[in-house]
Amino acid sequence: MLIYNYLLSGWRNINHNKLFSSINILGLAIGLAAVTLITLFVRSELSYDTFWKNADTLHRSHIVFKIPGRDPFKAVSAPGPLIHALKKDYPQVTQASRVASISPAIIVGAETFIQPVSLVDKDFLTMFDLTSLSGDLSNALNDPHSLILTKELAVKYFGQEDPIGKTLSLDYDYFKRDYKITAVIENSVSNTQLPIKALALIDENDWTDRTSLFAQWFSVNAQLYFQTKKPSDLDHINATFDDFSNRNFPKLPIGGADAKPSDFITLSAMNIKDLHLHAVGSGEMTERGNATRVFIFSAIALLILIIAIINFMNLSTARASQRSKEVSLRKVMGASRSNLIFQFLGESVLVTFIALAISIGLVEIALPFYNEVLNKELVINYASTDMLQITGLALIVGILGGLYPAFVLSNFRPATVLKANKSAESSASVKLRAILVVMQFAVSIGLFISTAVVYSQMQYADKMNPGFNKDNMLLVHRIGLDVVSEKLDMLVKEIGKDPQVTAITWSNETPGNTNQNNTMIRLPGMSKDDALLMGQRGVGYDFFATYEIKVLAGRTYQKERNDTPLATAQIREGANRKSSIVINSSAARRLGFNSASDALGQSIFTSRGNPNENLEAELEIIGVVDDVHFESLRATIRPEIYNLNATWGHTLSARFNGNPDTLKANVEAIWGNAIANIPFSYSFLRQDVADMYKTEQGQAKMFAAFSGLAIFIACLGLYGLANFTATRRTKEIGIRKVMGASVFDIVKLLLWQFSKPVIIANIIAWPIAYWAMSDWLQLFVYRIDNSYILLLSAIAGIGALIIAWVTVTTNSVSVAKANPIKALRYE
Question: Angle 551-554-558 (CA atoms, 0-180°, nearest 5)?
Fold first, then answer.
């Protein structure tokens, strides 16, 4: 009965004070919705690869190449031979498997699909507890002709038929093989760094024509997972990896006779549960998360929740004066302080639960857009403990938000309040409200500044000249497949005939789709030990003209000239003709030339063939081009050479004018007529470049959304306080008007009262935001100047002040215009 009376009293209080109740409920609803959305994201990020049975003892090897004069190259993949040395040197390692993601052409009847297949070692099936749906998983990879499919692919290729024992033909371009389906497994979950579509066994003999995949120590094209006896074995392995490197890696052709492999190579290993948030380097099979981002958004969730709670506390304590008589009468009628505390906490929890119901609706509305931004599939599972956790959170928020107001209200003394016939509000309560308003706006301004900095850096990346023209460029992929490369010349001619196409070329790599191919370069008279490691890219004729890359000196490759390089086989046979080479500006400087023109006509020597062959090709520098940002602004432009690939590449690039969809359709038709069995794959260069900053773009959108919510919640509270303050000062305002004060004077008075907390909030927020965002900008080699943060801070501060003025003015003007006679009759 007592609880019923508390709830009834609370409901009546909500109905009686609709404005304040609406502000409280809306603020809490938005706060709870924001916290729920962020919590779903954080929970998803923390769940990656925790579901494996052996997760505590499963680890992945990583590598860093530290070459003088170059940024360290970090990779989450490992050299192919590392698996054998690891098993040999470490008794702690019980099992190990490489995982190489290859995309062969899968031939199913008359159809051809391009599908990622994971090549693994036999230990993989005992290391990872895959769920078998059909077939004998324990013997499913007994030979190199066996193939395991996920349920998704089994249905895609065989429909509802049983695929076990059936055959698929896979064309890897280096070889073609028929595989027998030996098992079907459950589809790979989304929260893993090891997405599996199909599994086949590694046979190193299959890849003798591509030794970089499994045979070379300085090529990293496959990930390496290993299992230890105990989780603590990982610490021992990491501590002894330098000695391990010195024992097993071949000597690098740099650094002199005394140089050790560990001087230039750092191996490390990381537990599988830490990979998603803490791994660093290229070579992931799926998008990686970021521990800093998880921390930031966890902090934002907490701050938004604090802002919502502050709103509740502020408005509750502000209204305490209007409930002082009610409290006093309840005490006179026999209510104890504990009764009153429970009553007001009950009212608080009631308001919070109403807000909870609204927040769940807001979350369901927002989830489709939220998932699109994050590229995730987050849901609230009402059948699990999700609802219990959300309800528990709401209960805690209700108690925390109502605790201070409950103690303030229950502490009123009946004799003082009833005798004085006035409110019992203390100066301490007023000061607390001011402090809480400052905290609200400090957090909101800080989030606003952070959003502006992230957005400005993204704009800088988009507007900065990357050294090439990224607009109006269609990229056609998969031209490196044998069946396509045979028709490359025909494709180039046919696509070039399209009236929209203004230039066309091909290359091994394009901006946004690169790798870290390197080669040793030395000048005449320079010893091989002093050779320089430089990047290399393969390009076709007209590459620089098509991409509109500036030529600083000399010329680029021309079909009319004898620019075609010597093949490695020709060098083995003794051919010694000079070949042509184009280098970038950074390479010219690295080689010691004072200017681009000084490099023209000079010879350089580059390594060819296998490391033990000691082969070199002599190249004459025919052109120097401007530096180009092939990678994101996080990476320094490397010194690199551009080899001529006269008849082969991975991607065809067509510059065009006009409608991109029309050109895409025309090129797809040409492709379909020429190469019917290989699916057409394309992209636009601008989008590929934008995708390099997809993480930051998602972060900027989330920042903007949640900082906007924080500011909105803070303004809701400010509106409520302004309304309360204006109402409380009705008689004072009436007297001021009778004494000659204008409407402007009254509004200015009230505005100044609420401007002070916002100004103080700016003073607090600016240095914190400057420190945090300066640190974030260090992730980018090329970035906006830190002075922009100060400018954005000033804009944020002025914006917050204007928002506060608009919020307060809506109340102040109506009160200031009121008839002073009515104001003097007030109370």
Answer: 90
How distant, in Å, are the alpha carbons of 295, 374, 812 from that of 371?
19, 5, 41
436 Cβ contact list (under 8 Å, min separation 6): 310, 313, 314
Burial of 693 per CB tally in 10 Å (0-12, 13-18, 19+): buried
The rounded distance, in Å, linking the Cα atoms of 196 and 716 is 48
Q: Point out the residues of the chain with pLDDT beneath 50.
A: 1, 418, 420-421, 423-424
Among residues 218, 199, 232, 207, the alpha carbon closest in space to that of 261 is found at: 218
Contacts of 50 (CB under 8 A, 6+ apart): 273
Q: What is the pLDDT of residue 383?
A: 75
- Domain range list for the chain: 1-48+290-424, 62-236+266-278, 426-464+696-827, 501-656
Contact criterion met (CB below 8 Å) for 269 and 226: yes
Tokens at residue 269, please? 């290993």
Instruction: Give the closest residue to 179 by CA, choosing from 114, 108, 113, 129.
Output: 108
Residue 352 exposed, middle or buried by CB count within 10 Å (0-12, 13-18, 19+):
buried
Report the pLDDT value the prediction gives residue 683, as an integer from 0 to 100. 94
First to last CA, the chain: 35
| Backbone angles phi and psi of 303, in degrees to 5 | -65, -40
816, burial (CB in 10 Å: exposed 0-12, middle 13-18, buried 19+):
buried
CB 557 within 8 A of CB 507: no
Beta bridge partners of 648: none
Give the model confidence (pLDDT) of 660-679 as tens digits.
999 999 999 999 898 878 88
Tokens of 665: 């359709």
Contact 98, 222 (CB under 8 A): yes
Nearest Cα neighbor of 226 from 128, 144, 81 is 128
- Give the CA-trace dihedral at 287, 288, 293, 298, to 10 degrees: 90
Query: In 3D, which of 775, 628, 638, 779 has the Cα closest to residue 695?
Result: 779
Confidence at residue 424, expressed as pLDDT on a 0 to 100 scale: 47
Tokens of 270: 């990381």
Rounded-to-integer distance, Cα 811 and Cα 721, Å: 10
Specify the pLDDT at position 53. Answer: 94
Quote the DSSP letter at residue 200.
E
What distance in Å separates the CA atoms of residue 76 and residue 780, rounded to the nearest whole number? 20
pLDDT in tens, 92-116: 999 999 999 998 888 888 788 888 9
